[in-house]
Design a protein that fits this description.
Elements: E1 4-6, E2 12-14, H1 25-72, H2 76-83, E3 91-94, E4 100-102, E5 105-115, E6 125-134, E7 137-146
Antiparallel strand pairs: 1-2, 3-5, 4-5, 5-6, 6-7
Length: 148
């Protein structure tokens, strides 16, 4: 086959080859690098989102556990029974005595009983401070309990 073709008029001209240009190796490497950066960024954002969700879930679990403990001590008679004195004795107590595991997170709680902010009502008003700890943090809730 010759490099020339004849047109209908009989003149010869060079064959036109189709454009066979493709991607060079550098273009492919740059494209892969850009794709890797985008995917890496998406992975970082997703992992931070999962970590924030886990922390939030743990904090909500700790808050609910602290509220349960406050409810246990909400009645003055229970407070007297649990602290061993009437009026309730000031001090720090652990409740329950062992750690509690919920949703694969281990929580420990302590309750501090102290006189309320009104000195004249020290025997009738107590401040409860519940601290719940877990491996990634802790929270503290406070409430007042009275003998009325």
């Amino acid at each position: 086959m010759s490099k020339y073709s004849k047109n209908p008029t009989g003149n010869t001209r060079p064959l036109k080859l189709p454009n066979l240009s493709g991607l060079s190796l550098i273009e492919v490497i740059v494209s892969i690098l850009i794709l890797a950066i985008i995917c890496g960024g998406m992975f970082v954002v997703a992992s931070q989102g999962f970590a924030a969700s886990r922390k939030s879930r743990e904090r909500i679990g700790a808050s609910m556990f602290a509220k349960e403990i406050i409810e246990e001590y909400a009645d003055w008679n229970r407070l007297v029974a649990r602290t061993g004195g009437n009026p309730p004795l000031n001090g720090t107590y652990t409740n329950p005595p062992s750690a509690v595991t919920r949703n694969n997170v281990t929580y420990t709680a302590s309750i501090t009983v102290s006189n309320g902010p009104v000195a004249a009502a020290a025997n009738q008003l107590k401040q409860l401070e519940v601290t719940v700890s877990w491996p990634n943090g802790s929270i503290t809730m406070r409430t007042l309990e009275s003998n009325y």
